[in-house]
Amino acid sequence: MKTEVIILNYNGVKLMEHYLDSVVKSVENTTDTMVTVADNGSDDGSKEWLKAHYPTVRLIEFEKNWGFAEGYNKAITQSDAEYVVLLNSDVETPIGWLEPMVDYMNNHKECAACQPKVLSDRKRTHFEYAGAAGGFIDRYGYPFCRGRVMDNVEEDKGQYDNDIEVFWSTGACLLIRRDIYIEVGGLDSRFFAHQEEIDLCWRLKARGWSIKCIGKSTAYHLGGGSLGYESPRKTYLNFRNNRLLLYKNLDKKEYRWVAFVRLWLDLVAILQMSASGKAANAKATIKALRDFRKIKPEFEASRNENIRLRTKKNIEERLNFLLIWQVYINKKKRYNELVRK
Question: Which stretches within the chain are classed as H helix?
């Protein structure tokens, strides 16, 4: 099999009722492509609904919720496809979305992974927050995208229709070579959810692989389907995992400086949350920083391996500036204002 589209589901029967049909129809005339749902121990009738309505869709049943990262790791080990697509259950895929990405991968063996342009299913004229037209990161670990910088989401006017090298591809719709995914260790299950795809892509980039956004491919993402953008749980995971991301992928010398700067910036973020009435989010951030310090030693071996195996220390798509300074002081709120090529 050439390509397997894998949708990870946990109690998402309502999302599947709305979105799965588009995925099935978009690939039914595509040669050598399979759609699979990997179920993370749902108890909302998801499995029964799938068997009744889409008997041709492969179902992998897990006994419990393994989270986003480990759920995909377990599902991908059960695939024999050359390419696997990690696809969120709240993504609509139009006819023709998959072929440009597969064609690109077929013709560019140096490319490990790619994504489509991701537009918002809520407002289809605009990019979606999580992924947009390809992800980048600043020196201090703040991620942003072509089409989305901080909370500023751009209208899609064709300005990002070109194929481009990116730092990270969104886990909402990520096509990757299965053998490379397994070779570099897949998603880090200790993250559970959020920013684990950035960690995976950092490993790929550091080991010399290319990652692309393919402008001829488009998907529509609802976003915030499991955890809303203001959720304290999401705040916790993002702050904790971002610190883990930096610790795992930076050498000791650079990490010391970056961690020092980030500590002060995170303290400012906590104060800002408290002042704006988001006490639960402030508490979640404090807990995230405390928990990071507790579990950091567990990641030392992974960090040493990443440093040992990297072939490229300075990655061009990791931009040498502080994003929040550029946005709030220099008033640059679009990708094309931040990065001029």
Answer: 13-27, 46-53, 67-77, 99-107, 178-183, 196-206, 232-249, 252-275, 279-295, 300-309, 323-328, 335-338
